[in-house]
Design goal:
Helix 2 packs parallel to helix 3, helix 6 (about 145-160) packs parallel to helix 9 (about 225-240) and helix 8 (about 195-200) runs parallel beside helix 9 (about 225-240). The chain has helices spanning about 5-10, 30-40, 60-70, 85-95, 115-120, 145-160, 180, 195-200, 225-240; strands at about 15-20, 45-50, 70-75, 95-100, 125-130, 135-140, 175, 205-210, 210-215. The strands form 2 sheets. Strands 3-2-1-4-7-5-8 form a 7-stranded mixed sheet. It has a two-stranded parallel sheet with strand order 6-9. With about 240 residues, the protein is an alpha/beta fold.
Length: about 240
């Protein structure tokens, strides 16, 4: 770590912020918080939930459980505004130089956070939890769903040269230096903000760490048919900017 980097890091109140967008995730919040907190022991870390007015009481439960840990923030938004904008709003509340993004549905293992954090400390600017590097895999998906995911990844690699450095550019689980996001004008329209970061910020160097993508145990997927249909258009927009 360079001296300038060490001084910059020391100036922040926290070392790491975990940003978790939520909508109707009340069933998952207790286990998620317990596992995230256990994985962050020894770090000056915080957790920021960005909730889009979940009718199941997700925000209220996160606030109540957060009192136990003392490092939890909850941002309530007035309506469903999308995952990408939730990440940017979470970064605005962050008090750390490093930020992680993960889902609340327990498909992303919090136990991977320390390894990802160590990669950033080694000098990487982006660390992606990957299903498609050696050691990574997907559990519980049908052949059809795996095929769709592979095709979407191939399409991203075909149209976006900056995405080719990452084997899993559609991952929703990643950790990044905060200034990389803040110094680039992001205007996320889709459900995969990592793609926009790759297209606009072109972060380098990038590390990928393998993980097992688990089946969703509770609640329903929030990926809509509209978002799936708009994916190729989104890629073309990014490609034209490159």
């Amino acid at each position: 770590m360079e001296k300038g980097e060490a001084g910059e890091k020391a100036s922040w109140k926290k070392e790491l912020t975990i940003i978790i967008p939520t909508y109707n995730e009340a069933e998952n919040i207790p286990e998620l918080l317990e596992r995230v907190e256990a994985s962050l022991k020894g770090l000056r870390a915080e957790i920021v939930f960005v909730d889009d007015s979940s009718p199941d009481g997700t925000a209220e439960l996160a606030e109540k459980l957060g009192e136990k840990y003392g490092n939890v923030k909850v941002l309530r938004r007035p309506c469903k505004m999308g995952l990408g904008s939730a990440v940017l709003d979470g970064i605005k509340l962050s008090e750390a130089c490093f930020v992680a993004v993960m889902d609340a549905d327990l498909q992303h293992p919090p136990e991977l956070l320390p390894e990802m954090y160590e990669k950033l400390k080694q000098g990487y600017v982006l660390v992606v939890a990957s299903r498609y590097v050696e050691g990574g895999r997907i559990d519980g998906w049908s052949f059809r769903r795996k095929l769709v995911s592979k095709c979407a990844t191939k399409l991203a690699h075909l149209l976006l040269p900056s995405a080719r450095k990452v084997k899993d550019p559609l991952s929703g689980f990643f950790m990044i230096r905060r200034n990389i996001v803040e110094n680039n004008l992001l205007n996320p329209r889709g459900f995969k903000i990592l793609l926009e970061i790759l297209a606009k910020a072109n972060p380098y160097p990038v590390a990928e760490v393998p993980y097992t993508f688990k089946p969703r145990r509770k609640c329903r997927s929030k990926l809509s048919l509209r978002e799936i249909a708009s994916y190729p258009i989104l890629l073309l927009r990014y490609a034209l900017r490159e």
